[in-house]
Design brief:
This protein is an alpha/beta fold. Helices cover 35% and strands 23% of the residues. A seven-stranded mixed beta sheet has the order 1-2-7-8-9-10-11. Strands 17, 18, 19, 22, 23 and 24 form a six-stranded parallel beta sheet that branches. A hairpin with a 4-residue loop joins strand 14 and strand 15. The chain starts with 7 loop residues before the first strand and ends with a helix. The protein binds MU-OXO-diiron. The site of MU-OXO-diiron (FEO) has 9 residues, from helix 2.
Length: 401
């Protein structure tokens, strides 16, 4: 075990004992351009308690950080706030090594862990609102189903006022810094929103309710300790305001134009639409799929109001990279967007019709008719593209602030 990995104190009794993954670039389909962290925490109460573990390949780093503080055999309790394997990957081995008095998870967590691992120690299910005495400290559990899995829960350490929030309030960001106040705001907002868009967006309505529930509980966290990215110990209002804004999914005044091109015709149309959006007074971002990943598109769409999608027809169908992105976006269930469809074709031109159906199936309200052109757009078609852009901008600007 490396002596170079140390625990990091995050409050009077709580230490970070996680691992930093500088190399990961794909997290189940989400492009993690800045890596990530798997955070685990040790509560140094009378009953020493471990909250979550890390992804399996990072076991040595995690155990070294624990051992820099205590003999792992002195851990009394282990809490599993979330059963996904980036947090539970070392759980079975840790239980075996530590032989804690008890292991706790939500009722769904007990089931999910049993479906993932062979753990020979009984895992005790805790109820929503239940408290656990750690001797001189107390933990209270709050079910947070579907944030991000059915088993997910928050744990709150009173006295220290630390909220262990597993995926909630997290981000995929590897850094040497452990605290959000050591990282520039623009990086926090960008990576936090990207994480929300790619992981939590399908559950945005639940998150709105969860924020109300946490507020109703009357707890006043001084530290938010998520399972990914930096710990929030200062200006918690910032991350809470981000979550309130992102979960509300208010329609932004920006259009994103997501498209693929084969011989440049759909690209010409995209650029003409973009010029029209700008002329109409709204913001626009062109996202050619040769340059952008599906998770870039999801991140941009979170704060946009319009999704304009373009595809050439290839073998009677939508171009594959566009299908990839649209399938991904459909699963994320973005709400409150308007949209439009365009593209070029050579013979039959089915792509735009398929795309129209996809957008309608996502509940996206279409502006204007499908705009499609055979082979190469001339000035007349490009003028129609420009007008479509203006029309989208007008719709976006009509929305009340
Ligand atoms: Fe970080 Fe849903 O696991």
């Amino acid at each position: 075990m490396s002596a170079s990995f140390k625990a990091v104190k995050i409050s009077d009794r709580v230490y970070w004992v996680g691992a930093v993954d500088w190399a990961i670039r794909d997290f189940h389909g989400y492009s993690t351009d800045r890596g990530t962290t798997y955070n685990a925490y040790l509560i140094m109460a009378d009953k020493i308690t471990l909250v979550d573990t890390v992804k399996a390949p990072f076991r040595d780093e995690f155990l070294a950080r624990v051992s820099s503080l205590v003999d792992p055999a002195t851990i009394s309790y282990i809490i599993s706030n979330h059963a996904e394997m980036d947090h539970s990957g070392c759980l079975a081995e840790t239980i075996e090594a530590v032989r804690p008095e008890k292991v706790f998870a939500s009722s769904m967590g007990v089931q999910a862990l049993a479906e993932h691992f062979r753990i020979d120690q009984e895992i005790t299910a805790v109820k929503d609102g239940e408290s656990l005495s750690l001797g001189d400290r107390q933990l209270t559990f709050t079910e947070t189903r579907m944030v991000h899995w059915p088993d997910s829960m928050f744990s709150y350490l009173s006295d220290d006022n630390v909220l262990f929030s597993q995926d909630g309030f997290g981000m995929h960001l590897a850094s040497a810094e452990r605290f959000a106040d050591e990282i520039p705001d623009d990086v926090l907002e960008f990576e936090g929103s990207r994480y929300f868009a790619n992981i939590l967006l399908p559950f945005a309505p639940r998150i709105e309710k969860l924020l109300e529930k946490v507020s109703d509980l009357g707890i006043t966290p001084e530290v938010i300790a998520p399972d990914h990215g930096p710990v929030w110990r200062d200006d918690l209002a910032k991350i809470l305001e981000y979550y309130s804004r992102w979960s509300a999914q208010k329609r932004g005044k920006k259009a994103i134009i997501v498209y693929e091109t084969m011989w440049g015709s759909t690209d010409k149309m995209a650029r003409a639409i973009a010029e029209g959006v700008v002329a109409g007074g709204a913001e626009v971002k062109l996202m050619p799929l040769k340059a952008y990943h599906r998770s870039d598109v999801a991140g941009e769409l979170l704060n946009a109001g319009a999704l304009i999608v373009g595809s050439p027809t290839l073998n009677n169908n939508i171009y594959p990279s566009v299908v990839d992105v649209m399938t991904y976006l459909k699963g994320l269930k973005p709400a409150n967007k308007i949209g439009a469809v365009f593209g070029s074709y050579g013979w039959s031109g089915e792509a735009t019709l398929h795309l129209k159906k996809m957008l309608e199936g996502m509940g996206i309200e279409l502006v204007g008719d499908i705009l499609k052109v055979k082979f190469v757009p001339g000035d007349d078609t490009l003028e129609k593209c420009y007008s479509l852009g203006e029309e989208v901008a007008a719709r976006l600007l009509k929305e009340k602030d």
